[in-house]
Amino acid sequence: MRTAVFLDRDNTLIDNAGDLADPSLVRLLPGAFGACERLAGAGFTLVVVSNQGVVARGGGSLREVEATNDRVRALLTPPSACRPLAEAFYFCPYHPQGTAERFASEHPWRKPAPGMILAAADELALDLARSWFVGDAERDIRAATAAGIPPPRALLIGPDRPLADLAAAAEHILEQAP
Questions:
Q1: Active site residue 8
Q2: Model confidence over 70-129: pLDDT tens digits?
Q3: Beta-sheet strand order (sheet of 4-7)
Q4: Residue 90 is part of which domain span?
Q5: Is residue 17 predicted with pLDDT exceeding 80?
Q6: Count H helices, E strands: the chain?
Q7: What is the rounded distance in angstroms from the CA atom of residue 106 to the CA atom of residue 69?
Q8: Any catalytic annotation for residue 10?
Q9: Is the pTM of this model over 0.90?
Q10: In total, how many domains does the chain have?
Q11: Other C-beta atoms lying within 10 Å of the C-beta of residue 82
Q12: Closest Cα partner for 51 from 161, 126, 143, 145?
């Protein structure tokens, strides 16, 4: 089984001050590409898992979220490569307070539930006990630990935290990796 680094999308990989369903507005955060390149180069499978309640709230469609993820994929593809650094993207369009009736509910994939992580582990043959998670919100950490990623491997990043960004988290992971 392979070892992964699960990544939240918004405010971990890309800058997003709110609901983002417009690919033209996607901007990688400083250091994100290099961090992903280093992690993938060290043999980690990179998997993006993201709540996208924008769909449930009527601020974007499934197609727009997929197009936004496609833009992130493109930005995470090295110039000399034909594949992005992130192997898979999973997202949850549900939100219990949504206005789009089809998506206005709780769902097992919606973080802090572990559904996206468990699905990825099953589909991609990932060893969760040896994997890592990097996110910017407490719900990310709760989802990771509920999925079986040990708490020291679930990393919370942010400007006021010991690990300020994905680059710092990648450095930490690579220092701990065998």
A1: yes
A2: 999 999 999 988 899 999 999 999 999 999 999 999 999 999 999 999 999 999 999 999
A3: 86-92, 45-51, 4-7, 132-135, 154-156
A4: 4-176
A5: no
A6: 5, 5
A7: 22
A8: yes
A9: yes
A10: 1
A11: 6
A12: 143
